[in-house]
Amino acid sequence: MHDERSRPPPGPAQGSPSAVQPQVPRWFSDLYPSEFRALVKVALVKGATLDEAQDAAQATLTELLTHVMAGRLIAHPRAWARKALWSNFIGPRERDRRHLRRMIEGGCAVAEAETHDALSVWEDEQAIEPLLALLTPAQREVMDCVLDGLGTAEIGELLGKKPATIRKNLQLARDKLKPLLNHEPASPPPDPGEEDTL
To answer: Does residue 170 contact residue 143 with C-beta atoms inside 8 Å?
Structure first.
């Protein structure tokens, strides 16, 4: 005898408009707003216009969701998103900029002034660059990730290194930068046109 209560209710056929679509994971919905802003910021710092940065962030998060919905396990989605943003947008853009710079230096192109919303972010980055240049490549790589807002585990996954290695490089970088950041600038030298009146 067949028990009708044990059979699942008939549902819509696969592919029909009323077929049940898989749900977006809650963690992705929670992650999206803050990560979208963070990815836009990273792209702006690397020289994207606001529209380019928003497009790149959206494309990256769409790619992340596609992988998740396909069943791929992504342990550190923030690190994955930063790496995808680099691969899809920032890396090619950096290569294009280096090429343009070589063309300008070689006299094959003319530099034009361009201003956009990211100018103050770019200026901040320019102030930090000389300090980061004092670090070893491994320390600089870790500090760049920290400045992008990644945690130790995410940096480890992104760079393919153990968390202990990331923590050690971070400690060494901070130890090297701390005296430079805590150093009080000396008072400016007197103007040679002024004389003491004492």
So the answer is: yes
pLDDT digits (tens, 9 = 90+) for 126-176: 667 788 888 899 988 888 888 777 788 888 888 889 989 999 998 998 888
* Residue 41 · residue 82 · CB < 8 Å: no
Provide the token pair at 87. 């691969």
Q: What is the tens place of the pLDDT at every residue in 98-128?
A: 777 788 777 776 665 444 444 455 555 666 7
Distance CA 194, CA 190 (A): 7
Structure tokens, 78: 């923030």
R_g of the chain computed on alpha carbons: 25
Dihedral-angle region of residue 15 (phi above 0 means left; psi in -120 to 50 means alpha; beta otherwise) = left
Lowest mean per-residue pLDDT among 52-56, 143-147, 169-173, 187-191? 187-191
Tokens of 188: 């400016």
Question: What is the SS3 assignment for 133?
Answer: coil
- pTM for the full predicted model: 0.45
State the CB neighbour count (10 A cutoff) for residue 21. 7
Give the Cβ contact number of residue 58 at 10 Å.
13
Nearest to 144 by CA among 97, 86, 185: 86
